[in-house]
Specification:
The protein has about 600 residues and is α+β, with helices and mostly antiparallel strands. The chain contains 15 helices and 21 strands. Among the domains are: about 5-95, Sandwich (Immunoglobulin-like); about 140-360, Glycosyltransferase (Alpha/alpha barrel). The two termini are about 35 Å apart.
Length: about 600
Amino acid sequence: MKVSIFTNHIGYDSADTKSAVYCRRGSETPVKFQVMCDKTDEAVYEGTLCKAGEVDNWQTGYYYTMRFDEVTEKGQYYIVVTDDKGEQVRSYPFRIAPNLLEVDTLTAVGYSFKAQRATGEYGAADSNIPFQFGLIPGRIDAHGGWYDATADYGVHLSHLSHTSYFNPQQAAFSAYSFFKFNDLIDEAEYPYYTMFKRRLLEEGMYGADWLMRMRAPSGSFYVTKRRTMDAYGPVSKMRIMGAFAREPKRRKGGSTFADPSDFLLEDFETSFRAGGGYAIAALAYAARTTYPSEYTKEDYLKAAIAAYEYLEENNCRYCNDGKWNLLDEYCALDALIEIYKTTKEYDYLRRARAMAKRIMAHYVPVDDTMGYLSVNETDRPFFHAADAGMPVVNLLNYVAIEREQADKQAAIDICEKVMRYQLHVTNKVANPFGYARQYVQHGDGSRCDQFFYPPDVETAPWWQGENARLGSLATAARSLSYVTKCETFKKELCKFADDQINWILGCNPFDACMLEGEGRNNIDYFFEGERRDFIQCPGGIVNGITSGIHDEHGIAFCADRTEDVPDNWRWAEQWIPHATWYMYALCMKKR
């Protein structure tokens, strides 16, 4: 059937905001909508639709929005829209229940990481792995970690290190996050997550043990292990400890290529922004966690402190441009926070305070009430394909440990202004789904706010769907909602956070749930003209929706092979940052 009503396919938590979107089929005018009990076919709520209109150059229809926050009773429902001719359209059924999304999806997403562990023949090869081009002599044991994506059997702390401002946080961030999720669930006092918490700690310790093996003699960490680009050769011969060239000769998707003479030895290791910060944070977290593992708490803490002290002095050596920037600072901040929480030594709180002030110094006001963070010493805006919410999330993590009220409030004030601007940019145009827009700088230096990550920036030709970015911003919004004193702003933040999760779970123009195995219209992944062996993992989350292939004001979610799309990795490939940020956003909820 042609879908005219878009909802979250799984449903809505009873206490959350609840939105759905109606797409007009012709020239009719919808006059009312009703939320119907699926058992009795009786209306439990009736409301008026709000006109939104057409969106940018999506060419997907004329939209109206519907809100039904008042419906909180547990049950299964559907929506009926009645137009001015008396004709009715009915939605697919959906559920409402307390903590519905946490109960129904967190365990599946968490299990997807266990399925993505680099084990078997990869684990065997990784236990005695050489370095790319033989540039570093010998072999090391670096087994462990999670495959980065459906078609990427590499295990990366980060990639895109040839750029200055776009490193995503990958496997090290996931390791850290599993410990964080455990604590957040404790804070929420959920009564039914005992086994799930054990799985979280198991994945966290699995990641921490792998990070211990990824330590480099210098004091930093090795940045990646992967297969050579002959993706179908024997694993035992093709697995290597890799590097990311600062000036790659050519690029394809997220991969970069260079000759042996183009690499520095430092290119094998991390800066704070290339995964070092979260490797330290994960190890510091492991040092105060009681769960079976391969190392002692003292081992984890010693490694975390040594790595932090080394990178604080030597970070510039490992940055492609030789400079600290906002990304290094927000990753270093979480590292300091976790070391402080483990050691309780005041010096680490003092250093975290100084790092937070460095981050806040990036604030660029737009007016007296809102602004954005610059990424460097200029006013160049920070925007990101995966971690757009991370500076706010990490500043609020700092707020939780800060003792001085003035410093605490200064950080909250900056977070409020940044998120007010985020909501302003999101809401200033027709945007019925509440999709998080961002203020960007294009490759030619021009700036604008728009719906999707621009393809012409330094990461080109890498660009893809942004489900991680949506999860990160949902996490930031929920984090701030607990500390802001403005009740109106709090409600706006909660609505914004819910909208991002709803988009991922099916309330989008393609009626596609992007969590594999849930909802409807899960996208298939085809690669280089055929399926090959890149099969989706249940519980994984795909890259997601992008701008149009040839029009940044358009929209695309390419499920079928075309002349323009011989493979659809930009949309259909699963990537662990999507799953990590999705879990973070849900675990952040307090009930």
